[in-house]
Amino acid sequence: MLFNSKSQILNLELAEYQCLADLNLYDSPECNRLATQAAVGRHLRITSNQQGTAVEVYLCEDDYPGWVCFDDLSLLQPATVLYQAQSVSEAEIKQLLPEAIAFTQKAMQQSNYYLWGGTVGPNYDCSGLMQAAFASVGIWLPRDAYQQEAFTQPVAIADLVPGDLVFFGTHSKATHVGLYLGNGHYIHSSGTEIGRNGIGIDILSEQGDKVSQSYYQLLRGVGRVAKSYIPMRDG
Predict the structure, then answer these.
(1) Alpha-carbon span 158 to 204, nearest angstrom
(2) DSSP run (H or E) holding 146
(3) Which residues pair with 78 in a beta bridge?
(4) Is 80 helix (H, G, I), strand (E, B) or coil?
(5) Contact 152, 165 (CB under 8 A)
(6) Rounded CA gap, 68 and 50, in Å?
């Protein structure tokens, strides 16, 4: 075990570690509500903020914060090489989009359900599926739907192409995202309220079934991935 005493944990500050296994990050030190997940191999930094039996961390690839239980720190090892973001050109992204799309379709074939905070298969939330799909081909997106909307290049609905992100929500904020497949269809992970409780394909039209209609009424716009996310400390 990497951490075998509380004193070892308390002496850590901004050290970079790598995940030895899939890791849950929570939205509070109580560790009772999932914020996001870190797949094996991801990098994170441990901060000096410890409360109760948890420590605050942030993921290096997307700057996302969260809390890790002390017991789960055994799933980390010191990073032998610090994370360094790699730039990806628009031309390279265009070539990689079919693989990102294929990732989502393969994920749909597995038994799954909508998991708030899920970024590690088989269970994802909406933006977690998008992040995982693009990360699978070396392209990093911010974690949440509203962050992904701000990060992508706005595109007119009429100019949609496969691989674009479709955003839904309120007038003030994107709360849901899907990946456009072409021919008016998009793939997304959606919950039970107006979704299918898992990954499915819907049509971007008011002429679809009840699920498609419900999301279409919440349509905000479309974004195109034109770059890979660069962490703030590297920007």
Answers:
(1) 12
(2) helix 145-151
(3) 17
(4) coil
(5) yes
(6) 10
Determine the angle formed by the axes of helices 90-109 and 126-135, rounding to 10 degrees: 120
Q: Give the integer Cα–Cα distance in Å for 158 and 135.
A: 27
Percent pLDDT > 90 in the chain is 89
Closest CA to 226 of 45, 97, 35, 62: 97
Q: In this model, does residue 1 exceed pLDDT 50? A: no
Joined tokens for residue 221: 């716009």
Give the CA distances from residue 101 to residues 19, 97, 120, in Å, rounded to whole numbers and listed in that order: 26, 6, 16
Q: Measuring CA to CA, which residue among 89, 97, 212, 217 is closest to residue 165?
A: 97
Instruction: Find out whether 165 and 81 touch, Cβ atoms under 8 Å.
Output: no
* Interatomic CA distance for residues 191 and 204, integer angstroms: 17
Place of tokens 């597995």: 110
Cβ proximity of 127 and 148 under 8 Å: yes
pTM metric for this prediction: 0.93
Please report the DSSP string for 10-59 in residue order: HT--SEEEEESS-EEEESSTT--SEEEEE-TT-EEEEEEEEETTEEEEEE
Q: Name, in order, each residue with C-beta under 8 angstroms of 224's C-beta and a sequence gap of 6 or more.
A: 152, 153, 154, 155, 161, 163, 164, 165
pLDDT in tens, 4-27: 444 455 455 568 999 999 999 999
* Residue position matching structure tokens 């708030």: 116
